[in-house]
Amino acid sequence: MTDAATEPDKITGPTPDNALRAADKADSGPVLAADGTPLKRSLARALRAQKLRALMLIAPLLIFVLVTFVAPIIDMLFRSVENQIVSDTMPRTVEALADYDASQDELPGDAVFEAAYYDVFYAAERKLHTRLGSRLNYESTGSSSLFRKSGRGIDDIGEVYLDQFEDLDPNWDEARPWAELMGDPDWITAQDAWDGTGAMPAFELRSDIVEILPRTSESFEIFARFMQTEEGDSPLEEEPWTVVHTALYQDLSEGDVSGYTGPRADMLRAADALVASEGFETITFQAGFEEIDEDWLQPEIWQTIKTYSPAYTSGYFLNSIDMQKTADGPALREEDERIYGLLFQRTMVMSLIITFSCILLGYPIAYLLSNLPMRTANLLMILVLLPFWTSLLVRTSAWKVMLQQQGVINDVLVWLGMVADDGRLTMINNQFGTIVAMTHILLPFMILPMYSVMSTIPPSYVRAAKSLGATNWTTFWRVYFPQSVPGIGAGSILVFILSIGYYITPEIVGGTSGIFISNRIAYHISSSLNWGLAAALGTILLVVVLALYWAYDRIVGIDNVKLGG
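RESULT FIELD:
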């Protein structure tokens, strides 16, 4: 008879069968952690906490990179296409020019001149017309002075109507009558009660005046809001702009005010009768602009406004490659205006020459430092690093002194009889001066990467090659040099990228033939204030550098670039 304790199903101890049964039971439900939480959820929570701690550690560096590196690049890309100043400053003109054919050398209709009158007037009051003129001057020379002159003379058009209305009734040039005619009675009461503290009651138009005098209502509202927000003055105390009188003439000549019975109704009907009389003097908007400046009658200015009316433009990038936007599409500039292509080509070529010059001069120095005893090598390394302790401006100025025709080098050559006194060499304010000065400045950036790589090359490799019968040249070329190539690559990338972005040294010693594209970018940022063109040039330069970096990676391999180790 079998003992119950020995039966497989009755054994309670740790047997293989019982272990399998326990595993089956475990598989039937989730595995729990010590606190009763499903193990999978507990592990996920622990991983999230670990990732969050890691993110918090790198957050300061990440924010610093975003603020100082990524954000400026994004801003540069935006500025290179942003063109909202035209549409924001002259919205009525842009809308009126929608049907204007800029490809034809014809003037737009009087509706465009009317829209331009209101836009230029409001822009002049806000001091925005000069900025608009400067923007358009990049595309059409003379636009800047045209808009400055128009800002001073735009009042003349409205004064034609102001004088006649004022002769009829002096109240047409007073603040209170205008406010009573145009303003809501509740607003007038609130404005009168305002004691100068707190926010001024926002101007509100009469509910019935907009239908009777639409242009006048718009102009007076712009005037009143401007006075309140920009000048801090009450519209009840400030005479309206002359543009309001122009708008009043247009409304009276086109509309009917006979049914108006509100405030100042008698004054308004008398003005309506004056406008309808034969002796009332008028002036067309086109004639008014002609009196300001005859350039307004040239189709070119209207074509420029039309071409650059969109909020975003490719004009800056076209200018960067010596092209321009025209009514017929992109076109090359005149031969004598193509400068940026030459500057880009010069920058690339001279940067390559500077890079190769640094390789030729830096390789022997790095080789010598890596093969000398440590004590001697450290002493000579101080001499390599010594230029870093001197101001860049001082080093560049020193080369200007040395390379000029009455400088040290020419004096020595004349003293040695190698050069005649009347045939001194021209080594400054040209490409030669830029190459010499920049090679000297960037040479340490080539020596340090090459030295750090060469110092890790085991000397036993060279001794082994010689012991196998290789000559000194074969040992160097087939054993030593291939191992130093990563250092050359690292130094070349560093020097080349630094050289294409230099502008102080070429500006001082380069003259007109030795400057880089970076000098033109600096000029547009600090002098001409054409930030859009500067951003476009900078973007193209960035793309060129990235393209060269990609090409280098495809040909040489960025993994082969080392800084030692």
